Amino acid sequence: MTMLETSTTATESLTRRERVVLAELAEDVTLEEIATRLFVTRNTVKSQVRSVYRKIGVSTRTDAVAWARAHGIR
Prior knowledge:
mainly alpha, Arc Repressor Mutant, subunit A
């Protein structure tokens, strides 16, 4: 599997909500603020963030935001 195929697979494996959370991470807001915006708990956002990180193969918010921008997610 090539790097492009891997990133395409990762992009496709994200749920709609995970894409929303990933886009929100690019904003200068806390997880609590993201949770408030999305009408969920902070723990729900934390779980979704962990899932996104695992699926796209990153371990930091900075890396996740860079990955999102490179893949056209806000």
